[in-house]
Amino acid sequence: MYTRRSFLQTSVAGTIGIFLPGKFPETSQTPILQGDFPVVISTWDHGLKANETAWKILSDSGRALDAVEQGVRVTEADPNVTSVGYGGFPDSSGHVTLDACIMDEKGNAGSVVYLSDIKHPVSVARMVMEKTSYVILAGRGALEFAESQGFHRENLMTPVARKAWKEWLESKKSYPVGKRNHDTIGMLALDSSGNLSGACTTSGIAFKMPGRVGDSPIIGAGLYVDNEVGAAAATGQGELILKIVGSFLIVELMRNGSTPEDACREAVLRINKKFSPGPDLQVGFIALTRKGQIGGFSLRKGFNYALCRNGKNELIDAKWLI
Question: Which residues carry out catalysis?
Answer without folding.
Answer: 184
